[in-house]
Amino acid sequence: MKKLIACVFLLLFGASIHAAAQNSRWSLMGKLQDSQSEALRSATVTLLSTADSTLLAFGISDAKGAFEIRNISEESCLVQVTFMGMETFYSLVERPENSLSLDLGIIQMKEKTADLDEFTIQDIAPITIKKDTIEYHADAFKTQPNANVEELLKRLPGVEVDQEGNIKAQGETVNRILVDGKEFFGTDPKLATKNLLAEAIEKVQILDRRSEQSQFTGIDDGQREKTINLKLKEDFKKGFFGNFTGGYGEDQRYKLQGNLNRFSENQQLSFLGLSNNINEQGFSIADYLNFQGGVQSMGAAGGQVRVTVGGLGGGSAGIPINSGQRMNGIMDSHAYGANVNQDFSKNTQLRSSYFFNQLNHQISQDIDRLNFFPSGDFTFEERSIQDNASSNHRLNLIVDHRIDSLNSFRSTTNAQITQSDRFGRSETANRDLDGNILNSGERTNLTFGDTYQANTEMLLRHRFNKPGQTISANLTFGINASDFDGLLSATNEFFGEAPSVEVIEQENRQQNQAINYGANVSYTSPLGGRKYLELVYNFRQNRSEVDRAVYDRDGENLVFNQALSNRFNAVYTYHRPGANVSYNAGKYNLVAGLALQATTLNGELLLFDETVSNNFQNLLPSLRMNYSMSNTKNLVFNYQTSVNEPNIEQLQPVINNADPLNIYVGNPTLRPAYNHRWQVNYNSFDMGKFINIFANGFANFTENAIVNAQSIDERQVRTITPVNVRNNMLFGGTVNLGFPIPSLNSRFNLGPNINYSNGYNQINELEDRIQINNLGGNLRYDFTWKENVNLGLSSNISRQSTAYTFNPQQNQLFFNQNYNVDLGLTFLEKYAFAANFNYLKFNSRTTDFNEAIPLLNISLSRFILKNNMGEIKISGNNLLDQNIGVSQRADVNFIEQSVTNNLGRIIMLSFTYKLNSRLNPLNSLGRPGSAGPVRIMRM
């Protein structure tokens, strides 16, 4: 299969080279200056067709004002040069007779003074550079009819979109997308890119957004967030627009999805909805967790809980490897949402959104695990089924009010209600390496209940008359409550010298309530000489109450089990005063800080008449340096310290037997872990050649790391307890290089990465050093020809090795590989073809596990109605009928493979209708493809 992919790659690559070489092509160059003979950097040079003014090619001038556009095939073309504040320059040029290059020499641009209304064609500048903002004109980058913003972004030079829809711009991850400068459904970029029409976008602006605190104080703290702002066309601000899709397939599979938007200068209204039974999650992973009822509630009721053994670096869950882009199991998904943004005046704005999510999820899973212990290895098998149902309501509300020029107020509120029902049944067995059974178990769990959560923040800010002198206060309040009931039925059989059978029939109820409140006060003042002082004080208190009652069933009677029950009250109090000193010197800024964190924990275990009391004090230094070599090249160094205090669940010596063969017990003697983190980032983006380089290196060092120690008794029952161990260390790095090959209409992206960790854990009270090496990377090739052909080839490979001190013969080695081919074709004006082939391969040298999954999706579309407002599509997903999902992961003393059920082949016929797809008649004057006279200057 890998050979087939390589052949396809070479065939298409060779065809591209042949097509590029079959005609003699020529180059155009020149140098741009202003009226003072100073070089014009980042001006846009565009080549237009003399027949119909369509876009042929474009480039950006470098720091010396020079530009060069290569591989021109046309006999003649129109040159257009645009620059902010300058009159647009036009020139008609022809292919040179005795040379393969034409030098226009020095072109002196004029400042805008004349009325340019005599032009009947608008400036077509695909890219405009405005200081730290790159602006793409969307009409210059053609997409298929009914394409969403994600498809538009894939065609922009310097922007990358992976299979999951994650976005990188200039090598950096984009975490926020704005629509006309306003947040769209919060901070999840995918909600905008997957639901808004590419046709509605006039400009895509990429900028480095400063932090909220920096924007308020005017003091540059060096923190930047790569942000995309989507500027809508005026035509799409005059009514509703959106699209609606309905599809039906074999085995009663269906899909309904749509969005409706109405945007104006002062108001944004958006409505989203989906309903399907084909495992599609149209929203973000955060919404998926809300479908599940949130992470915390999953273990709150004492129902089916798998206690995951912590890995290195403070209790992580190892290094799981995702098996692909599909969501495992069989799911029915329903989700509806509304986003309302309203500017009541220039001083008062409202940002709000509401979501309702409902999910029914059936999972069938087989797990095979090889466990390594100093006393001997054994295997673990589990066959389980789960049937989970949950619904979630979520509300977000932000009010910004500017009281006057010196004072402002901001209120942020979010609330959610989750209802969930979960059923699980599993059969497990532990065996020695000879295949002899050590113990077996059957377990049934049922959990149902509700969770309520609300948080609010009020931010008051005052700016003094003296520049840089500010004070702000942030008040917070939150409440989290849950009420769950659970049933546990388990039969465990133990073999060996003293065989026995253990039967557990239990009911439990758990009520949790947590209230937190706090305040953060920040004062900034200039010290002179571009130096600034910030004084910060943070106070926070968390109060929690837990009432967990477990009853053993004895016939028809319920007997209270005090050993497994728990009632406690806990109060966490934080005090954190600190100071930061910053220095801004044009190209670089430096921020150094020091804080003292004092934490007090007072807890009361009411059923055991015990108290838990701890006090922790730690000094927390920090240092950040940002060196901006230019608008597109910078270096960032960051050093931070933090304290990971044990929570009340880790400290209380109470047994959790949700899985009777894997018991969890807290440790009241735990100390906080102290973390040091160093990070270096380098980012460079060449606007003229669209070459980006991003490099990241990091190192983590943890003192008194908290890990989950394991001990196993003679019956192979595992007990897990959090403990402090010696220092753990983790370091690694990644590099991303992206560059185009314009002559081949291609772009390459290469991203190797490496991670190494060295840490300690306790297994049967023996401290063991564990070293984990992870080496991998990704490679992607994209070929684009106009709006007709879009080809992507990619691979992602990971190699992980784990070495143990107590027994080097148990060292682990496994590989995970992912190869992908994406192809999109538009032909005969009204037809579109799309295909995706994904090949997943999992291999373990430790267990001889070897699994491969080929996935193939194909679709054919026919566009109908005026302006392609309708689309009829027939699609085949998972045509090779692979109805399983596979994953492979390793942890501190085991390697595990799991196989999960999944949807098989789906053939579906769907129809999409696009609302408000008409073209603005005014746009035809300046859209590529519109003909019209233009004033031409001959050279």
Automatic annotation (TrEMBL):
Annotated protein name in UniProt: Outer membrane receptor proteins, mostly Fe transport
InterPro entries per UniProt: Beta-barrel_TonB_sf, CarboxyPept-like_regulatory, OMP_b-brl_3
Ranges for domain Outer membrane protein beta-barrel: 462-773
Xref: Gene3D superfamilies: TonB-dependent receptor, beta-barrel domain
SUPFAM superfamilies membership: Carboxypeptidase regulatory domain-like, Porins
Source organism phylogeny: Bacteria, Pseudomonadati, Bacteroidota, Cytophagia, Cytophagales
Gene Ontology CC: cell outer membrane
Alphabetic keyword roster: Cell outer membrane, Membrane, Receptor, Signal
Region forming the signal peptide: 1-19
One Pfam match: OMP_b-brl_3
Localization terms from the record: Cell outer membrane
